[in-house]
Amino acid sequence: MSIFTKIIRGEIPCHRVYEDEHVLAFLDIAPLSPGHTLVIPKEEKATLDELSDESAAAIGRVLPRICRAVMQATGATAYNVLQNNGAAAHQAVFHVHFHVIPKTADGRGLGIGWNAGRLDPAAGRELAAKIAAGVTPGR
Ligand code: 5GP
To answer: Residues 18-77: pLDDT tens digits?
Structure first.
């Protein structure tokens, strides 16, 4: 169980911005910028690939609404949605969560390192086919 389960259960307080049967959203306790919000499924899964289709659909339905509300409330016009999976990918809390991070005029928000490579056409064809073959419904 992670700290987010305790927040879902109301055992730890949060600044809640949205809740329904499957989803909870609340302000991040250590924001990168004002309005930094976490959107989480109530289903207890560590990483996105483990999430059921039902929870995934519930999050997908409300995520844009929450983004709109965060932008309206903060006045930001740009933002990032970040979703980390695994310690090596900067995940610290092992319960699925989407960060909604406004970018402020003075540059606060998410900093991104983007070490882009080049996609080889043959390798890309092979890899895309391999990934496509593995796309199956969640539980
Ligand atoms: P991660 O690195 O796992 O993607 O991000 C976890 C996020 O959860 C961090 O931004 C951190 O500030 C936030 N966080 C950790 N503990 C709490 C908490 O108890 N309450 C709230 N509101 N946010 C938390």
So the answer is: 999 999 999 999 999 999 999 999 999 999 999 999 999 999 999 999 999 999 999 999
pTM of the full predicted structure?
A: 0.97
Q: Which atom from ligand 1 is nearest to the alpha carbon of 26?
A: 22
Ligand 1 centroid from CA 23, angstroms: 16
Ligand 1 geometric centre to CA of 93 (Å): 6
Strand order in the sheet with 23-27: 16-19, 23-27, 37-41, 98-103, 78-82
Could you give the maximum distance between any two Cα atoms of the chain, in Å? Answer: 53
Domains parsed from the chain with CATH numbers: 3-134 (3.30.428.10)
* Pocket flag, ligand 1, residue 25 (CB < 6 Å): no
